[in-house]
Specification:
Elements (H helix, E strand, L loop, with lengths): L8 H6 L4 H8 L6 H12 L17 E3 L2 E3 L3 E3 L13 H11 L3 E3 L7 H5 L6 E5 L5 H13 L5 E4 L9 H6 L14 H7 L8 H9 L9 H7 L4 E6 L2 H9 L4 E4 L13 H12 L5 E4 L5 H9 L4 E4 L1 H32 L15
Parallel strand pairs: 3-10, 4-5, 5-6, 6-7, 7-8, 8-9, 9-10
Antiparallel strand pairs: 1-2
Helix pairs in contact: 4-14, 11-12, 13-14
Bound molecules: flavin mononucleotide.
Length: about 350
């Protein structure tokens, strides 16, 4: 049967990915309340279409840190793409490049950040968790700049890893042939170390993430490179204001796809208060259960400059490698352009708060 929407990849991918890795990819934390709520928030949004507008040429293009992007749909940082495909992040980079899309590479990539960069001419950003080992963290930031990455994305919602019950039940560990290519042998050993009732990734985070950092520490990270610094995982106006005060260049409103604090507010619900607090000073992105061009339209109407897509990229990667990644990204962009036409909003700038109820 033809694949006509992003969700069509889901059952096909489940058949191809090993059960423990599928649980890792799909799962949320706790009772998966936030995972569920992320999706429901998008489903509940209703559009206010305008008629008899010239929509003969609709453009989803946006500008972000000086780069012209053909689409506001980018690849979210997700760990270890080799769970989905043997080529891992290299295939993702090729697929994103074919779609002309921005790709945010996870600190937990199974390929080095230089290997990933060699596969694409489209923009890359590097995601980081704050490691206790500051030399290691600094090394990654500097390497990312040298390899041509265009921004750093510090994930701030994970002082510890969320309690992902599926992984705890599975005693989740990385498969033997998957390595944290940008970290060291000690990190790898921890992420392969099996313990009943625990996730090896959770144990690794407990030992290697610095849970003591605060807003004041960001200045240290900023000074290491000339790259823009975004924080990913902000969900409140208070933190959005602090981010601006501390010179952060962009915010990703996110609850980590429902994988960190269970019961946290859906990202889409948090988006308007963050956008209002930022007052246009820096771009605001959002992620969490974006599954169609309609979802992207809703996020843009609530003030997002762009969206990140996590799990669907992994589904498509599992089903057909780089071509799947390209297909998912171009399909969502086509859908967005279609919604823009039917909603009478031919340019992204026309998609304002009046576009939804
Ligand atoms: C399998 C998986 C691994 C992830 N790994 C990371 C990561 O390494 N760093 C990070 O900042 N976020 C990570 N995330 C969160 C994503 O960046 C993003 O916030 C989330 O997946 C968006 O929701 P969606 O998957 O519903 O689109 C991960 C998410 C998934 C599903």
């Amino acid at each position: 049967m033809a694949i006509v929407c992003v969700d069509d990849y889901h059952p096909l991918a489940r058949d191809r990915v090993a059960a423990h890795n599928w649980d890792y990819i799909e799962g949320g934390s706790g009772a998966e309340l936030t995972l569920d709520a992320n999706r429901k928030a998008f489903d509940a949004a209703r559009l206010r279409p305008r008629m008899l507008v010239d929509v003969s040429a609709c453009s989803p293009a946006v500008e972000l840190f000086g780069a012209e992007l053909a689409s506001p749909i980018a690849v979210a940082p997700t760990a270890y793409h080799r769970m989905a495909h043997p080529d891992g992040e290299r295939a993702t980079a090729r697929g994103a490049d074919a779609a002309g899309a921005l790709y945010v590479v996870s600190m937990f990539a199974g390929r080095t950040l230089e290997e990933v960069a060699a596969e694409t001419a489209s923009p890359l950003w590097m995601q980081l968790y704050w490691l206790r080992d500051r030399e290691k963290l600094a090394g990654l930031a500097v390497r990312a700049e040298q390899a041509g990455y265009r921004a750093l994305v510090l994930t701030v919602d994970a002082p510890q890893l969320g309690l992902r019950r599926r992984d705890l039940r599975n005693g989740f560990v990385l498969d033997p042939d998957i390595e944290p290519a940008n970290l060291g042998p000690a990190d790898s050993a921890l992420q392969h170390h099996r313990q009943d009732g625990r996730s090896a990734l959770g144990q690794h985070a407990a030992q290697s993430f610095d849970a003591s950092i605060t807003w004041a520490d960001l200045a240290w990270l900023r000074r290491l490179t000339t790259l823009p610094l975004l924080v990913k995982g902000v969900l409140t106006a208070e933190d959005a204001r602090l981010a601006v005060e501390h010179g952060v260049d962009g915010i990703v409103v996110s609850n980590h796809g429902g994988r960190q604090l269970d019961g946290a507010v859906p990202a889409l619900v948090a988006l308007p208060e963050v956008v209002a607090a930022v007052e246009g000073r820096i771009p605001v992105l959002v992620d969490g259960s974006v599954r169609s061009g309609r979802d992207v339209f809703v996020a843009l109407a609530l003030g997002a400059r762009a969206v990140l897509v996590g799990r669907p990229v992994l589904w498509a990667l599992a089903v057909s490698g780089d071509e799947g990644v390209e297909a998912v990204l171009t399909m969502m962009t086509r859908e967005l352009t279609h919604v823009m036409a039917l909603a009478g909003r031919p340019r992204v700038a026309d998609i304002d708060r009046s576009a939804i109820v």
